[in-house]
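Here is one chain, start to finish.
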Amino acid sequence: MVAGPAAGPETVRALFRPPFRNYQFDAAYDEMFQAPGEPRPHYRALFQTLLELPPEQLRKSQQAADLSFLHQGITFTVYGAEEGTERVFPNDLLPRIIPNHEWRKIETGLTQRIAALNLFLEDVYHRGRILADGIVPKELVYSCRHFRREMRGLEVPRGIYVSVCGTDLVRLPDGSFAVLEDNLRVPSGVSYMLANRKVLKKVFPTLFRDYGVCPVDHYAQALLATLRALSPPNSTSRHEPTVVLLTPGVFNAAYFEHTFLAQQMGVELVEGRDLLVHDNVVYMRTTAGLRRVDVIYRRVDDDFLDPLCFRRDSSLGVPGLFNAYRAGNVMLANAIGTGIADDKALYAYVPAIIRYYLGEDPILANVETYLLTDRSQRSYVLEHLDELVVKVVGESGGYGMLIGPQSTAEQRAEFRRRIEAEPRNYIAQPTLHLSRAPCFLDGEAQARHVDLRPYILYGENVTLVPGGLTRVALRQGSLVVNSSQGGGSKDTWVLRA
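Its structure:
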């Protein structure tokens, strides 16, 4: 909870000078201020800098940042938008600052979490001990649309199913971080983290240097090292296996990211039509002939990877890819079937999964979650739809969600019908007071809700680049940070010790 004296809007205005003159507080934790007009120690230098800068200079800096994103082609896609789908990714000028001791706890907690989730996936697709022991209900796993029977008994390199993960964290009113969800299939957004950093180093060069901010620009090389470490034993070269990034193509929402990461890693960006399988070995078509592929960083969903095994109408995948994968001749990151571990219903069991495999209490807490397959929990949720957030278990991007306090009676009635028809397809959570951070909007600093998506790499070791994507709910009062729902992002500064 934000400490400090009770203060109405007029009192707050009296304490601040531009650009903070109209800055508002609520029950949420404020990232910059511990009380109205009193910045937290690690924000004092930024606060003072902003007070000293002329507002016009800040506007010009924001314009320069926007132009930088435009010229780099940093875009995202909004599906179903009438005014056009391709948009420049919104970015905020003011960095979010995280002290080193807070980051260390995040790092340790996420390392614990990805280790447990990998053990869970290996167990589910082999012995199934956790299911037999009743820690996780069998029906929850087997009814998940991301469960792949084809993966049963299949050995993956080093037993690592998830080598790239983006876990969403929220800061609660008491200042602690909690996990909101895990993204284990094809997590996106890391290119925006890198782009934000590039822009902010130009906008605040002196401040950036004086703060001693941990670097993030080595992420692409860390990702490449992770992928190479997972190459098959019989790869063309154990020292430098052939890695490619498989994209669905130019119409995908994250195509900019695919091209950016391929370029940064120095690997080929390919579509399904660029690859073929012969004798259970994957080859890439090149101007010099066929070249064997050892590792595929795939940004294509399971369903579309191989029309001979999964969706027969897919034109995005590679016929025969799964047989090559099953034969151990190619590595896929992430492994097929990882989606069961980021099913929003299974999320509720992750603390138990950590205790089961590691014998440890979770370092990072979960958000309280109601499972609607349970009759009593479902009854409670249906009676309190106006207070809760309801999510579809397999959706992402902020789609298919009901935010109770901001919903209409008609919307709640519709969700009631959906829940009663398919309770397995939904979970509910309390409406959280996400922390707020200052954002430079309309020529002044305004408080907006934020979350944090750090990126975890799992190869020979677990690696977290210190930072992550801070997503911002740019619409006033909104709790939805997804870019597809009007959100944006800002640079995240993790300070050295």
